[in-house]
Specification:
Length: 351
Amino acid sequence: MNEEHELTPAPEETPAPDAESQALVEQFLAETTGTAVTEGEPPPDWHTEALPEGHRSGFVAVIGRPNVGKSTLVNALVGHKVAIVSPKPQTTRTRVTGILTEPDCQIIFIDTPGIHKNPPFRLNRLMVDTAIAAIPDADIILFVVDVSAPPRDEDETIARLLREKAKKSPVIFVMNKMDQLKMESAEARIESYWKLLPEYADSIPTSATRGTNLDLLHEHLLEFLPEGPRYYPGEQISDQTHYMIASELIREALLRYTHQEVPHATAILVEDYEERDNGVTYIAARIWVERESQKPIIIGKEGQRLKQIGQAAREELERFVGGKVYLDLWVKVKPKWRDQNARLQELGYGQ
Ligand SMILES: Nc1nc2c(ncn2[C@@H]2O[C@H](COP(=O)(O)OP(=O)(O)OP(=O)(O)O)[C@@H](O)[C@H]2O)c(=O)[nH]1
Ligand SMILES: [Mg+2]
């Protein structure tokens, strides 16, 4: 806890970005408006393709406190890994889109950061704002809770946030982690969640990791989804760029091999991503830490931990790229990056 306080810098004016940072921001913005991740090339005339009568589509915002399984659920429903997952809370930092296209529907899932109380840094405030901002435009809300534990203050806060929305649009209670719910406490536990949001449209117990009831959830989503067009080409599974996915996959490896405050004080900036003539994809990324003392923690004895992180990240990146990856990782100290707008913008947070 002391560590947490010590790390909390006083709010301060954000300095103007230096030339190097500015160039990176511009590069990042150029990349983010570039191509998004698809399964193959979309046909140029995808938006004029005839759709079956009664085609349904819409935006489904996935909302909940940290660590309840929102990203696991989105990946399972989309059938592709679009969002990283970890047992540590506050894994998702931005809005992540996962697109599911079927012959008669297109569902656009918006995975969001976990809504948490007393966000200590600007980064956390951005995360909470990002999640809340996804609510008004959504056609359907999935309010994901972890039924293996009793409701927490944060669940109550979210239920309050959703009360008005639930009068206008369907809110489905997704009672996740049912595989960890003990039979003897199941009824009382589910009742305690139902009490939170009397206006909910529907509730479904699920296990995102085991895939339990996900077909049923899909069916219920289709019932609530309005008729509408395809918003994205059928081949597109996310609106993230290759740069963003690469940085997230590296962060996922980092979350696996670091503990306590360190993973939260860390960010990844991919500076180079190029497919070389020899067929190898070259990815250069900086691991940002906040303090000099965190650098040796990430690097480890004789560089062992950084090697582990790099190896785990490379395996995931190779799966994603579908070929060999050369990964160049560097650790850099960026003091107070979690409280500085320019740094957060460089990382693409809050956009
Ligand atoms: N037992 C069990 N574990 C689950 C289930 N769904 C997710 N998990 C685990 O819960 C942890 C958190 O999952 P995430 O998908 O990262 O949770 P999240 O809600 O996206 O978390 P934030 O991004 O931090 O808000 C991971 O270790 C998952 O493997 C489930 O149905 N059952
Ligand atoms: Mg998540």
